[in-house]
Amino acid sequence: MQAVNLLPRDISVPPMLRENPGASVSIRNVSRSFDGNRVLSNLDLEVRPGEFLSIVGQSGCGKSTLLRLIAGLDKPSSGEVLIDGQPADQSGDRLRIMFQEPRLLPWATIADNVEIGLRQGSDPKAIHEALTSVQLSEKAGMWPSVLSGGQRQRVALARALVSHPSLLVFDEPLGALDALTRLTMQNLIRDMHAKAGFTAILVTHDVAEAVALSDRVIVLGQGGILHRVDIVRVGPTSRGSAELAAIEAEILDAIFAA
Amino acid sequence: MSLTDSLSAARNRGSGWRPSLPKPEALLPYAVPAAILALWEIAGATGLIADTVMPRPSIIVGTATQLALSGELFTHLGVSAARALAGLVVGGGIGFALGVANGVSRLSETLTDSTLQMVRNIPHLALIPLVILWFGIGEGAKLFLVALGVFFPIYLNTLHGIRNIDPHLIEMGRAYGMTSRQLFRRIVLPGALPSVFVGLRYGLGIMWLTLIVAETLSASSGLGYMAMKAREFMVLDVVVLSILLYAALGKLADTLTRALERRALKWSPAYAGR
User: Where is the ABC transmembrane type-1 domain (chain B) (predicted)?
Assistant: First the structure.
């Protein structure tokens, strides 16, 4: 039986020297309450340009809330979220989101759906390039209803990438996919991240996925960060290797200790 | 290639074409109406049903041909169709506009929706005595009644369509930097369209119903007038012909709307491959 090989990050090019160095994210003393119920409390977090950070934790731990604050879809009750030093809701098309559902417009063709992510006034050729990079260029003229779940999520990825964002946030984007499609998508996201160099923040409940994709995993719980793990990759690592399994166990322990 | 060349080429291509008979399954929906017509004709011809009670199909076809040749039929048809269309445009237009306004703006909805719901519960035909006093028996009365009848199904279904748009799509649109105008044009309007079409088809039914009643009560032209005049002179075949024409016009309007719907909603799996 062969393990699925995960390509190592292209470490020969430091993030700062890539065409798109990725945005830095600063979360300073952030709290968020809903009807008096405090979900996040005085949270601090720095994300380096080009880093792939995963946020894991039990359901209701506030990981989606944190992601929505970073994406500018919600405002903190106190504290600030800065992207490259600017408030999150002013980042425009430098920030893109991938949701758990593909959220494609059913009445627009695949190409028109990707066009939504295109920067105003930029070359429409980018649509074709983005679709080619997710291997769906031949479906450009079709309706989303004819695609499979995995293909739809790939269109959503193309829509997110077409404007060459410097920060991409993922809200459990692979949660609704079957196990095999999920592995394919993980490899695709890793490749894209290695090539394009954007900063990526992924919320997931799948610890193996977090470990497979990220440079750093944080465990959220009780309104704050319970645990941080840096994952240093030197050479090819394969899913199921002893090192990764040990990291997964460490993270799971931290989650259940909460 | 000259024009005559291309014309003859087109003719040659066409010469291979033979009108093919429709498949037997395609004829099935027409089997029952055809059988009824046949029985009706036989019953009339054998004297089982007197022509003074219910003229048989062949007599009605004769009357229709006669009225068509004299041009009278098309005058009345045209007048009725114009009234129906005017009422649809006015009532449907206002209904759509208010549906959109109330679907998009909470303030507009709070201001108008409960009033509209109250008015909706009045059968619009109950207003006929009032309408005749206001507008007399002119075109205004008919336009008002048809517009009022068409208004509600289109208003309610437009509002419902906008309400039921997936809020996730709106959030996606905002997150991807769409302006309110773009949100409306790219998400709200196409998302509400299937429901608007339901309202339109329902409204068309009410449109014909209202028009028949309005024209039967008071008119000096139109299909309803033709039927009422025929009744006074006991010309039963014209009465039956008017009724059949209403059925045909209703079916025609529905078929056109369906075709439009299929075109506009071709993205929907419900219409794919049809």
Answer: 73-257
